[in-house]
Amino acid sequence: MQFKAAVFDMDGLLLDTERVCFDIFEQACHAQNVPFLSDVYLSCIGCNSVGVERIMRAGYGPDLDYRALNDEWRQRYTVVVMNEAIPMKSGVIAMLEWLKANGIPAAVATSTQREVAEAKLRLSGLMPYFQSVTTGCEVEQGKPHPEIYLLAASRLGVEPTDCIAFEDSNNGVKSAVAANMTTFQIPDLVAPSDEVKALGHHIHPSMDDVLQVLQQNARVKA
């Protein structure tokens, strides 16, 4: 397991954002008198804004006023994430410190829009760990397409095959695997589907477990 750089998803992987967003989406549904369809929301995890709209419209049907629901959802969400630090997931700092100590550059590849993504990373204190941040608004094709991971690797000046990727969502894993990165999945709200399990990537319950794997591998190679 040789690698020269690491690329991280953000929401649900570095930050415990998905539960916050899930609750806010439920609030927005109630405010707009729209049914709260949790399965539709969960299908959106890992997608950029274009993908979210496509899934929402398909899940709710033609009578949905998507613009009104999305505006309600985003306004409520923005108030929280632009002003409050989202809790970090277990093991994140330890992993980033280990990569830093070993001279391995790190980047973020998130479907979130840049302004919001940078605010989240800044408020959480994580921004200094990353050499670059690539966001969903910078690519034409969002996850599960590999474009965002390929762009993140390019910005680090590293071949995708020399990168390890960290993801929580099924869409994100598909994206990273399609980019030919060694991919670790740490599931958050959604368990890996059978389709995703068949990709043959690494699945672990926490970032702490992944760090142990990488440290052990480093000791063996040393």
How would you characterize the overall build of this protein?
The protein has 10 helices and 6 strands; from the N terminus they run E-H-H-H-H-H-E-H-E-H-E-H-E-H-E-H. It is of the alpha/beta class and 222 residues long. It has 2 domains: 148 residues, HAD superfamily/HAD-like (Rossmann fold), CATH 3.40.50; 65 residues. The chain has a 6-stranded parallel β-sheet with strand order 3-2-1-4-5-6, sandwiched between helices. Strand 5, helix 9 and strand 6 form a beta-alpha-beta unit. The longest helix is centred in the first third of the chain and has 16 residues.
SSE topology sketch:
Elements lengths: L4 E4 L8 H15 L6 H7 L4 H12 L5 H16 L10 H10 L4 E5 L3 H11 L7 E4 L11 H10 L6 E5 L2 H9 L3 E4 L8 H4 L4 E2 L3 H15 L1
Parallel strand pairs: 1-2, 1-4, 2-3, 4-5, 5-6
Helix pairs in contact: 1-4, 2-3, 5-10
